[in-house]
Design brief:
DNA polymerase, domain 1, about 350 residues, 6 strands, single chain, alpha/beta, disordered N terminus, 4-stranded parallel beta sheet, two-stranded antiparallel ribbon, Rossmann fold
Amino acid sequence: MVTFPGQLPGLRGTTNSNSPVFSAIDLQRRSQELLSYSISDNTRKLYDTALNVFKAVCFNIFRKAYYHEEKCPPHSHELVNFVSYLSYKQFSPNTIKSYISGLYFCKLHNVHDSTQSFLLRKVLVGLTRKNPRADDRKPLTLDILSSILRLLPTICKSPYESALFSVIFTTAFFGYFRMGELVQNSVHDPGHAIQARDVIYLEHNNTVPIFLRHSKTDQNIHIVGPKRIWIIGLSIIKHAFCYARTSSYGANLELARHNATIFWQGKGGMRLEEIYPKVRRLLKVEDAPHILVIHCGGNNIPMDKGAKSADLRFRLKAVLKKLTALLPSTILIWSQILPRLH
């Protein structure tokens, strides 16, 4: 049994006289629970499939033919023979590799990982070279999408079903959605599919923002609060704000789904030396931004008589250096000065 004291050294908290007592089994269960959260549901399903196939092939067929002893984890040479067996059965290299990756999960059960042996890795490389397969999947073009939409009324059971699939296919195509983001896993398992509360209609600009609550490329959900973005510069910034405000994107450029807001500050005729004082004045009434975008310097051209382009670069670096010291936690983005014909 393991006893935790009421207050652990170096940790905050009130002292508890009734110290909880945990057994090794309790701690192992909690560790397995935490490990289960480290992989996605689809990855877990892949691992389960790999283990089931390995057991079905090795324990029921392969090991009966060659081995009399069952043990876990399997030895590396057994995995090599397993790969060879699947190769004879015309399994694709990608399928075989996914099964081996599933067996790698044995490492999380505190056993030796035999899937990383040098011999097995070389056999998998040879398998890929011996059976090269080009990806024959074709991209979905706008013409193909149009053809699918025209055929839906003839193959769907009802107008509602036809409209449903039309919306799904069109949204996936133009929004670059994964199907798992639009379609539930089953009737009782919504998975990561968007829900009714995640879709709203904005009548003022005739748009439909869709909020994704899950990202396959950012499963740790790095959201720490609202992001503030400042865009400061000359008249181009002012005109850009006026255009964005009346466009379908809105003044926030549809960044609300990323929990971000944009604060536009454009001034006609602004010069490079006005940037730093402008930022200092804004900090008196606003919190420091997470991101500061600057587009300025065009009005500093043409330069004073006798000045060189290097002088403008030095002045620019000096301004950025002062801003870095003033805003140490802010990401500074410099927008290139637009070229001029005269």
